[in-house]
Amino acid sequence: MPAEGIQGSLKTRGIRVTRQRRILLDLIDRSGSHLDAEQLYELAKQQDPKLNRVTVYRTLKMLKEGQLVDELDLMHVDGDQHYYETRAKREHAHIVCLACGKIEEFYGEPLHRLRKQIELHLGFQILVARTEVGGYCSHCQLLRAQEMERAAAEPVPPPPAPKSRRPRGR
Ligand SMILES: [Zn+2]
Ligand SMILES: [Zn+2]
Question: Which residues are in the CB-under-5-Å shell of ion ligand 2?
Fold first, then answer.
């Protein structure tokens, strides 16, 4: 989204455009990935060394409340961390590898259908939908299979020999 777009979206939400807000929204918009608050703070600081952590966290909260960014927990793959991404992106599901933490985005018709069906069957007006799927990516499946093979191939260690030696007399 170009800078005008960001300023425009801030304004239409009735949010005053400040330098920090613009910097953060711009970072989230351009990153295309899922950054956590700490990573965003580090990046924002490069643009404005005067920015402090509190401001960044407060701004993120405000952008979230203004529905400009989405706050994700991504199956808590990395503890209690939250990740941010722009709401301007087309709806997608997050596919999280629980072994290596890789995150894939799944765009597709099924999500749209799911939304339609919920609206139809439950008479629900959906404002936000978040889909997260956890499992093992193809790379980690391979690693796990290899590990299992190795474990199966390893000879079973003999039970520890009983200590037959008598304790030395004192
Ligand atoms: Zn993986
Ligand atoms: Zn995403």
Answer: 85, 105
